[in-house]
Description:
By secondary structure, the chain is mainly beta. Helix content is 8%, strand content 50%. The protein has four helices and 37 strands.
Amino acid sequence: MIGRALLLALILGGAARAQTPVIRFEDLGPGEGPKTLARALTRPYTIIAPASAPATLPRDSTYQHSVVVLGRDVAVLGSVHGDVIVIGGNLFLRPGGAITGRALAIGGGVYESTLAVIDGGIVAHREFTYDITPATNGFSLKYRSFLDTSVPVFSLPVFFGLRVPGYDRSSGLSLPFSPRISLNGDRLVVEPRVAYRSQLGVADPGSSVVAAVAEGTKVRGDVGRGMFSNEEWIWHDLINSAATLFAGDDARNYFRGTRATGTLARRWEWSSSSIEPFVGGLWESVRTVRPDSNANGGPWSFEGRHDRSDMLRPNPPINDGEITSLLFGGRLDWGDDQGMTGRFRLSGEWGHLSPIRSIFNDSVSSNFVQTTLDGSISFPTFGTQSLRLDGHALITLTNSAPRQRWGHVGGAGSLPTIGMLSRGGDQLVFLDGSYNVPIDRWRVSYLGAPAISLREILAGADVGRMPALAQATGLRLSMTAVYVEFLVDPARRHGFLAAGLALDR
């Protein structure tokens, strides 16, 4: 009798453990916003139940799939391999927080941090929310519209319309101002902008527009005068600005001019993956920008202000002229319950360069086809250990591409054991592998556990051929977004010691 009772208790206990809370819709509601939420909830998720106090995803936390927060605000300081969805509250990103999916707020807003990372973008619907009631094995949601409030037609995001500033050796301080105009809810968003650049003494105008034309389908357009770079993948904007100001290490080359782009994208989502292909077009007219080889001064920095390998490092000259291109590509994201995540972006360009005729340059037209691939894959190994691989590749499928389509590697952020952006061309390969071992016994409240990472980097660039790859290998010790590392070039036996902040590319 006791044995049967014990067996029955084990069976019932196992069944209870197998029943995890779920979310059901009593009334989903009309429109694209509720459909977006319903699609997001088809993926595996963890529920944080309603409460009066705000929720926190602490720095020492890692969620292997989406997190759904009900009826309260949430602050994200840890890592989430999936979406963070807040229903009936606001979502606050804190320094060090990382979301591989989207930040989605229903009935509230999403508030960013420049030291946090959101790979999948931001979606905020303030015009409706859901009444949340406990239900069998979970919670029930009933749609409720805010008839007396709606998305404001005109708003000034971030700090009264002033967006995050930038700092580099070509522009000096860049101060962008951009209001937001929302029509028909968030289905049509227009953001005119102007950016003042202190070193050039100019104000660059521009505008972007995003229109939701159908479920999962968006048209994006952007036109304006500005500064452009092919090395934005190396460092986060904030990290590059800080490195330029404090160390004179600007890990980007620049060119300047006018560019207009337009794309049509369609997004499909499943329980653990999504894909978003796009097609579009581009037109640009650009030219080489300062500093050149004769520069004697420029923006101020704590270190390297007058050094021709730092703040006075010349921008490579480009091919003057106009480019008209067909754009194509897409994005693939996936994740599973075991913690494996992947993110790949492919962008292709089939372009035509029409050089400007001058007394110094014959008018010679050229066609080119080029693809750019960015990827990252991470998966757990033993216990809390993990392996991560990041890559960036530039592949030119024709004989050559104009110089404004060349990429460069070298220096802090890509391959520290060689000179800053010392290797360039229209063929580029960058591979960064790290095996990460958290030291769980030394876990610190609010900071998480320090980690030791074994790193291996291969990178190179050349013109018209597969590049020879330089190598760097070594160890990194990190705590949240702060790290110190030592890398060695085995061929030249050259070492490199560095410390800084690390954010996902």
